[in-house]
Amino acid sequence: MAKHALLSASASHRWLNCPPSALACASVEERASPYAQQGTDAHTLCEYKVGKALGRKLQNPEGHLENFDAEMDDCTDEYRNYVLEQLEQAKKFCPDPQVLIEERLDFSRWVPDGFGTGDCVIVSDRELHVIDFKYGVGVLVNAKDNPQMRCYALGALDTYDGIYDIETVKMTIFQPRRDNISTASMGKDELLAWAENTLAPAAKLAYEGGGEFHAGEHCQFCRVKATCRKRAEHNLEMARYDFAVPDTLEPSEIAAILSRIDDLVSWGSDIKDYALQQALSGVKYDGFKVVEGKSNRRFTDEMAVASAVQSAGYEPYEKKILGITAMTSLLGKKKFDELLGGLVMKPPGKPALVPEKDKRPAINTATDDFKEN
């Protein structure tokens, strides 16, 4: 069984903001995500393709991957090509850069027992480049102020600074299924100062179970988020909001509610999911019971159904073109673009009200249109 760090780089955003959550989560068994194996397969393929391109003798894993398909093949090709491009860039100012693939990176100088695995690290004079491959599509990941990437960079820096004359640290998130390549850079001294002044003190607190619980966006992947009292208090503040009659709410009051509504919905969903699992295990909640939910009818044997309908003189099948996602998976991204790129349109999305920090440009509203006339 693989060893996992108590203070892992991947969870650093959480334990930096909420130090006691590290020990709290360690006591709860992690529930495997249905997408975890898909991500593992994609990383395995990335490791093979980059290694092969660098002339290393590795066995092709495609036949052993549960989730291998055309999309994964294309995405890992894109990643390999990006790594090779960055290597060529490094060679412009360093004759002998090193490329580390799936390298264990030890940052225990600042974080007790801290280590992680770097997907790709290019070490050269002047610049250290850490590249992290993300196969998921659910969450768009940004490299800016990303503590996981900084921890990986510190691990590489601790080993190779001195062997190479590193001045700048570059960190890149490569997330092909979201068309996202996010890069952040910082000076070596700036990164080391962050490690000493921010990372190390928070890690010490987290490792010892000290500090205070704190709720926020970092709760998303916390294993105890459903039962965390601090998160409950944080969200129940909205329940104590002194609501007026809805049509008398001022814009400032509505804005205050909007800023918290997504957290409330997420928290409510987590509580319901947790309570259902507990109820199925025998826990009783006053005023509630477990019942059988709504279900839809389905055929027990589709082949038998088709045969019976055809025998009666009817056509049991409908012809329907594959959707864009399924068609991309069938053809592969490159072939899809070649054959169908000119036949795809993207209509305007449904208007959505989001915080101003969202990167999408604002659309014209009725007020804007009036001003322009």
Order of strands, widest sheet: 1-2-3-4-5
**CATH 2nd-level architecture of the domain at 12-208:** Alpha-Beta Complex
How is the CATH topology of the domain at 12-208 named? Lambda Exonuclease, Chain A
- Total strand segments: 5
Q: Shape from CA axes?
A: globular
Task: Give the overall pLDDT as a whole number.
Answer: 88
Low-confidence stretches: none
Q: How large is the share of residues in beta strands? A: 5-15%
Give a verbal description of the structure.
By secondary structure, the protein is an alpha+beta fold. Among the domains are: 12-208, Lambda Exonuclease, Chain A (Alpha-Beta Complex); 225-280, no CATH class. The chain contains 12 helices and 5 strands. The chain has a 5-stranded mixed β-sheet with strand order 1-2-3-4-5. The longest helix is centred in the C-terminal third of the chain and has 30 residues, at 251-280. The model has no long low-confidence stretch (mean pLDDT 88).
